[in-house]
Each structure stands twice: as structure tokens, then as C-alpha cells.
Amino acid sequence: MNRARRGGGSAAVLTVLLSLLTGCGAGGGDQRTLTVLAAASLTESFRDIGDEFSRNNPGVDVRFNFQGSSLLAEQIRQGSGGDVFASANEEMMTKVRRADALAGQPRTFATNRLTVVVPPGNPAGVESFADLADPDTSVVVCAPRVPCGSATERVESASGVELRPVSEENDVKDVLHKVVAGEADAGLVYVTDAESAGDEVEVVDFPAADEVANEYPIAELAASGHPELAERFVEFVRGERGREILDEYGFGAP
Amino acid sequence: MPLPLRFPALLALALIVLPVLGLFARIDPARLPALLTSPAALTALGLSVRTALAATLLALLLGGPLAVVLARSRFPGLRFVRGCVLLPLVLPPVVGGLALLYLLGRTGPLGGPLRDWFGLSLPYTTTAVVLAQTFVAMPFLVVSLEGALRAAGTDYERVSATLGAGPWLTFRRVTLPMLLPALGSGLVLTFARALGEFGATITFAGSLRGTTRTLPLAIYTEAQADVDAAVAMSLLLVAIALLVILVARPKAVEGRG
């Protein structure tokens, strides 16, 4: 292979790499993509909502980014883009609003509260929230930095029970996974996560949880390339059908 | 040097260096000293250094002999075994964490008996952090050592044997001194990788301040709320990594050994 051809080869490789990096090159046609950044606890319900929204709006592809609300809020502040943001608490939505990253007003569309989940058979015999303080019971919770973790702290002060968790996870789904995997005697997750886990966990309900419900706000993002579509999605979530689906997954009405 | 290589080479360097510089650009100088010395940062740093040192030691005690066996023995399936050693390098660390969890967790085939018979439970302990770090970092040591052993060949060892030295004496007086440069670089790489371990740790060991929340985990947790704090801790990690690589890196890796 001579020198010139080698040079051409590396240039071609570079072009391919750059087009991969920048996402150019692939044509889209009429298909429009709506990117929804949503709290991890909305994973199952929003997937259903997204499917139905796509059916009602042909040519619209709804893409989700489900992560902890705190992480999403920070990504939005850093300019990661997206059309709609649905947060698991008001604090993270406020954070985004303060960064001037919202196009519309945040509107509460659902509420959620914590519950205790235990592995099937309840090996540690957890009967009440107070049982979680037993040092022989390994409890996994969300880190205080994330919405489910700040809700956990509020439940602790409301009930007067101080937990000594073996791990503080960054995401409510990670807490659920530790319980499902049988690696924790109990975990504090949202009612909706417990619902979505089905038979893989048992639920121990407790009264203090009712006092500290999280409110879920949703809003269109300023960075959105399809503001009208983003608004239609928000309306769909808040509309009758959205309400039904959220209900199914255990979310409370605002 | 052919000119067409320079441009992509420059781009490659930029891809590695610029993001790290971007981190420096994000610093809030006013808050930096307080953030760097915050209890959360110091606790995480201390835990990270301790566990990474323990993981490096464990890698040496277990991975060292493994490298010698791989380089010096012949048996069917050797290539396959050598491939397996590389697995942690190519697997996503979360997979490593899940694998450890399902083996050594409460219900795992090894973790169950450990718990039932000896009352030992590994997840959520500092030991679990060390195991996760060793899992991910040990291949660096094994690969460094095995490569050096194979490159050095067996001539000196054979001469030593003909002069009447037994295998253990030959290993200590001939093989080991030859290996020292590779051993140094392997240990440094292992330590640096253990220090940066995240995915396997958070999956297998969980995250609790002072017990399992190492510096990378603390950075991830802080990034959820206080980005300045996360950036400050990231700087700490970058600084230590650079120190380890630049200062402690033996000459062998630089191509002069």
C-alpha cells in the first residue's frame, strides 16, 4: 500500500468516526422524535404512556431517558437537551427552572409515597416500620441526595424511627433490585415500584408514609425542538388516559 | 513520521486530555479548599486508598502466581484460561458486580453456605469493595507479568537449573529479579484501576459512607446534588491518578527498561 492510499484510508476512517460521533449521516424522514427525561420511578408507567401517545400521534417516536431525577436535572442544566422533563419531586424541577431551562410552567401530574418492601417470605419478619431499626435487619434505602432519599429522611422524622441502612443507593430501582435479589431484608421504595415488582417482593405498609407524599411535576424544556409536540405530550400525561395509566401503576392523583 | 498520522494522533490526544481540562474549567475556586477537605471527601478518599492498596496486595498474592503459571506451563486449554483472565478488562464493571453478587451474595451458591455455616456476609462490607476492585484490576498485573515472563524467555532459568539450583531458588534469584520492572508497572496500574473502580463496587458492595462509599461512588452521589463538590472530588481522583502514573510509573513502561 502506498503512502497516498494510506493517507486516504485514515481520512476515510476519520470521517466515519466523526459522523458516528456527531450522529450525522443517517436521514430521518418525516419521523419526529420526542425525548422525554423522566424519573426512574416513572419507567413502567411512562413506557405505556409513550406507546399510547405514539399510537395517537403517527410519525412520532417517543424516546425516554429514565434516571434519577437529580441526575436528569443536572444533565438538563448542563445543556443535554430533551423536550420534556418529569421529576420525582419539586426540588429538582425548581433546580431546572432556576437555570432557565423550562419552556412551560411545571404542573403536578401525580403523587407517590414510600413503602417497605421485603423479599418473598419476609425472611427477617418485618411487620412494621419500627422493625427496620433492628440492627439485625439489613435495610437498603435511597441516598439523601436523591428524591426517594429525601422522602426517606422525612419519613424517618415523621415516624421517629432512625434507620441504619447497610447501603444508600442512588436510584430507587437499585434499592428494589437489592431486595428482589434477596441481598437486603428490607428496602424503602415508592409504592409504584413495589407494584411493578409484582410477586418478587412483599409489601409492608405503614401509616407514616402517607404524611410525606412526593409530588411529581412535569414541564416542557426550553431546549425542545418541537415545543408544540412537547406540550401535547404533557397534556396527554395530565389528561384522562394518562391519569388511568398512572393509576394502574399506583400513582396518586395530584 | 508520515504526516497523515499526525492529525488523528492529535485528535486522539485531544479526546483524552480536553475532557479532563473541562473538569478544571468547572471548578469554583472559592469553594474548592472547603470542598476538598470536607468530611465526605476525606472519608471517601481514605477508604479508597485503603481498599485500593488491599486490592493491589491481593492481586499480587494471587495474580502473581497465576501469571507465572500461565507463562511457564503448558496444558490443554491454556489459551482459553488466558482469555478468561482478560474478561474483567472487557466486561462492563456492572456485569462484574452482578457476577460477584450472584456468587457471593446471601443467596449465591458460595455466599449462601458462607452465611449459613460461618455467619459471613460479604455484600455491603469493605471486604466486598476490595474483592470488586481486585476482580477488575488484577488482570492488569497478570498481563504485565505474564508478558514480561514470556518476553524474557526461559534461557536464564535453564542455565540456573544446569548450575544446580532448584526450581524455588531459580524463581527467587533469577526469575523474580528479571520481573521487577514489569512487576512495578503492573502494581501501579492495578492500584490506579482499583482506585477508579465504580460499577462493580456499587453493584456488589453498595454505597455507605465510611464503609463502602469509595471516592468514585462519592463523586456519583454528590453529582446528584452538589456538582461543585463532585467536581472537587473528581479533581482529587485525577490528581492521584496522574501522580501514580507519572511519578511512580517505572521506566519499563516508558520503553527504556
Automatic annotation (TrEMBL), chain A:
List GO BP terms, alphabetically.
molybdate ion transport
Ordered alphabetically, the record's keywords are: Metal-binding, Molybdenum, Signal
User: One Pfam family name from the record?
Assistant: SBP_bac_11
Record carries keyword Signal: yes
Entry's Gene3D superfamilies? Periplasmic binding protein-like II
**CDD domains tied to this protein:** PBP2_ModA_like_1
Entry superkingdom: Bacteria
Question: Per UniProt, where does molybdate bind?
Answer: 41, 69, 172, 190
The secretion signal range is 1-26
Q: Which GO terms describe its molecular function?
A: metal ion binding; molybdate ion binding
Keyword Ion transport among UniProt keywords: no
Sequence similarity: Belongs to the bacterial solute-binding protein ModA family.
The name under which this protein is listed is Molybdate ABC transporter substrate-binding protein
Organism of derivation = Actinopolyspora erythraea
Lineage of the species this protein comes from: Bacteria, Bacillati, Actinomycetota, Actinomycetes, Actinopolysporales
TrEMBL record, chain B:
- What PANTHER family does the record tag this protein with? MOLYBDENUM TRANSPORT SYSTEM PERMEASE PROTEIN MODB
- What protein family does this chain belong to? Belongs to the binding-protein-dependent transport system permease family. CysTW subfamily.
What taxonomic lineage is listed for the species of origin? Answer: Bacteria, Bacillati, Actinomycetota, Actinomycetes, Actinopolysporales
Name of the featured protein: Molybdenum transport system permease
In the bilayer, the protein is annotated as:
Multi-pass membrane protein
Q: Which organism is it from?
A: Actinopolyspora erythraea
**Secretion signal, residue range per the UniProt entry:** none
Q: Does the keyword Cell membrane apply?
A: yes
Q: Name one GO cellular component term.
A: plasma membrane
